């Protein structure tokens, strides 16, 4: 009996089946310290227990993206080991904060399958849920990936494509219990801009750039127990390149967005996301944002901004996104649509 | 009076003498987080407090190799600062788990000396013990190294070569108190294979590869306060290479072995070990294992496997080990013989 | 309204004004583990809770330089974003240890301004204080930097140059409460040399070298939330080099000084400091020290040494410092003058 995991192929997925992902993970303060070492993260709510307490929380939660990366990493052996491409995200919600000491596990449900016309690959849709040791929902999101078939002669399954909303409704955002921005200290947070200072359509160049190193992206990806070989094995691709984990670019861009969005403290939803082009070591990553929507919440002093966060590399022109044909420009790495909480 | 440590030379060692190694070290959750960042470690017992509790432990211990590396690092200034080669390990046993918050210290006894026929170097044998703040034995092992003589005219000491068993007897393995695999969750652990599924002689290719970076091996080695200059100083060797610490290869290979040995949770003994060839940054490390023996234990549901773990680099053929003359092939980095605990 | 921080320019500073630096930071054991991964730090007081307790402390504090780097990092957006050069330090005192769990914040007062004769830049002097969550003073120091003018036609302010002592007086050193070296364990600390063994004028070559990697210096700098772009963005300089943060060199040199100064446990003052030449990835950093002064303290068994710590790169001759014209030699990276506590 073969002992190693060959991964699943397209024809192995059945709509409605549940995938229990292995290796639960306890995360504590060490992971937070590493997050600050790996990313230029400065949002005060995740940096200071005292600041978090002044916002009504018991202490500083872990960055939402830590929870996302851990959960995502757990799904790799069951979802994307034989993936050709990670096609998109939708309906991501961060429901309960991840506190130091929590143990995270992940479960996915297959919610769609669609064989491609070439007969060699297909798209699978999964809804993944991250849970803590109390079985509370931390995060859930839909992701779809293109996966190889093992057996090209396997019959195509009935196509099921889930109906996915373009964005999480503002009314469906979950504000962490106790969050209160009515005594928010803008000086300590680093910028004076509040919810009302951001206009829909406004774009912000986050100015700073970070050049990616092999050691750094591998460490970041490994920290989340994501072991997809394209990230670690220089012999896995003909060009000898190791592909940077898309989530590394998300965290880099989010951290860079501090400069201009220092008060967009908490990520509460991921509406959509595309990894437009691959990122490699040596690329210098920059970011810009666009304000897509605004909403209020029931929590005191807490507003929500819907933001587009774009990461670029190289000599991208200002606010680079798509070319005239509507395709992502080659310098665009990431196009992420998310909701963040910000003081009113 | 010279203030810096010149290290000991061959003629400085006396059979029976005790070496008290400096700089005790408190290890906590930060070191665990770093272990997960530096190695693709996924064994569930070391990843999740909840999983560890389901196996009868109070919470997740630190990886045995963390304890080994810390203890080994402490011995370097007294044992291997002037070493030419680290020749072998024997009779290593992990006796008490290392818990977050423990303070580790190390003591060695010189148990053998043998001058080489060239009159320039000699082999010393030491038994090293790692202890916690309660003076409990965490780990002990025998190691022998080739050390330079300071004074080539120093007389050769009487040869003493200790009698070392080829392997730790199964009856001498120490199972951590409370360990109970009778309610072991194979789905969460990541693989269904139990003790009875492994046959003596079976070999497992662990598939994945990791390309080593300078920053990573230096960070890992430094973390264990191992400051041997060959690992850190690009000017120390004529070829400008920094030598990867042998223990880094052990941890890499052990982590890679998850894919096929996900349930070989705890290392309880190191029977033998050889660093067959040097590893350098840029090498892509892979691993394979061979089942050497099986034994049961008195603990509920807990069996033991004796495993050979081989790390290779480059385009090593499958299950590369020795050439026809019986020498290690040039692609072989590590040949480690150890006992692990696995659910029955 | 522009949302991003353009930084302050020379004409924006007024003598007497207070700068409240943003983003308080809670530091815990994760940061300590990272310090041991990033630097070859082995001083026993910061490595072992048990050793620290044997010296009268409740447990192991964080390295003083962790506090310094965190506080320094917070000042960057307000003080040195448009700096041309970091010119010097004076009157630095470490007043209260940083304990795991502390939340650090930083405040600066502008204490001097002096426009340069070229009319393009000026020097500003700030006194920075790092405080914990109880508003206790952790560290304070004076720093002066050369900053660009935004508007070359802005009138020169009245010159104010603070009167800075060449060194902190021995009588002004603050010994941490409870510190007692009367039962100090020299064997566990790693060297037998005590206060009385060091003579004024004595110089110590610390022997070991560390080759700097891009990933390492960026991670170290980022960990302290220092986001000055010259350290991270390979496109920021015409030569494509990323400048190593000067504080990284301080921590490297301090850690290397263990070999010869293992008992110089605590840094209590920084008298002066100059970053003589830039450091880049690929440089191999070495260090040497000179004993400048000795003093006793009121604490049991605790003496103080005033030390010059010099970091060099490349093939620096022994004890390289200045050329015949009195200028720093090109191999000299750092010339730091500090007080350390050492057992009598």
UniProtKB/TrEMBL annotation, chains A, B, C:
Gene Ontology molecular function: lyase activity
Organism, as annotated: Roseicitreum antarcticum
SUPFAM superfamilies: Thioesterase/thiol ester dehydrase-isomerase
Organism lineage: Bacteria, Pseudomonadati, Pseudomonadota, Alphaproteobacteria, Rhodobacterales
Listed InterPro entries: HotDog_dom_sf, MC_hydratase, MCH/BMMD, Thiol_ester_hydratase_Rv0216
Protein name as annotated: L-erythro-3-methylmalyl-CoA dehydratase
């Amino acid at each position: 009996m073969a002992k190693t995991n060959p991964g699943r192929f397209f024809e192995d997925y059945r709509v409605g089946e549940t995938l229990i992902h292995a290796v639960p993970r306890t995360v504590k303060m060490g992971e937070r310290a590493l997050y600050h070492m790996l990313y230029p993260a400065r949002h005060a709510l995740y940096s200071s227990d005292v600041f978090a307490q002044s916002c009504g929380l018991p202490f500083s939660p872990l960055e939402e993206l830590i929870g996302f990366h851990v959960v995502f990493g757990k799904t790799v052996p069951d979802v994307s080991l034989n993936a050709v491409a990670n096609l998109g995200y939708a309906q991501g919600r961060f429901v309960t904060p991840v506190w130091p000491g929590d143990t995270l596990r992940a479960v996915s449900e297959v919610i769609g399958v669609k064989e491609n016309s070439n007969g060699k690959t297909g798209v699978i849709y999964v809804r993944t849920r991250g849970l803590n040791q109390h079985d509370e929902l931390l995060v859930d999101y839909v992701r779809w990936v293109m996966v190889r078939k093992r057996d090209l002669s396997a019959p195509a399954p009935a196509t099921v494509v889930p109906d996915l909303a373009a964005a999480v409704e503002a009314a469906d955002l979950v504000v962490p219990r106790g969050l209160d921005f009515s005594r928010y200290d803008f000086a300590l947070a680093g910028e004076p801009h509040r919810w009302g200072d951001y206009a829909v359509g406004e774009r912000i160049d986050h100015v700073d750039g970070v050049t990616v190193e092999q050691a750094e992206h591998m460490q970041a990806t490994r920290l989340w127990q994501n072991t997809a070989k394209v990230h670690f094995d220089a012999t896995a691709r003909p060009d000898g390149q190791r592909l940077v984990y898309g989530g590394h670019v998300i965290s880099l861009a989010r951290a860079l967005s501090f400069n201009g969005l220092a008060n967009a403290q908490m990520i509460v939803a991921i509406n959509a996301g595309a990894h437009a082009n691959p990122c490699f070591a040596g690329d210098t990553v920059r970011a810009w944002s666009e304000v897509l929507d605004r909403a209020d919440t029931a929590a005191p002093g807490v507003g929500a901004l819907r933001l587009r966060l774009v990461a670029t590399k190289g000599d991208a022109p200002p606010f680079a996104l798509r070319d005239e044909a509507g395709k992502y420009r080659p310098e665009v790495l990431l196009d992420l649509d998310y909701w963040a909480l910000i003081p009113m």
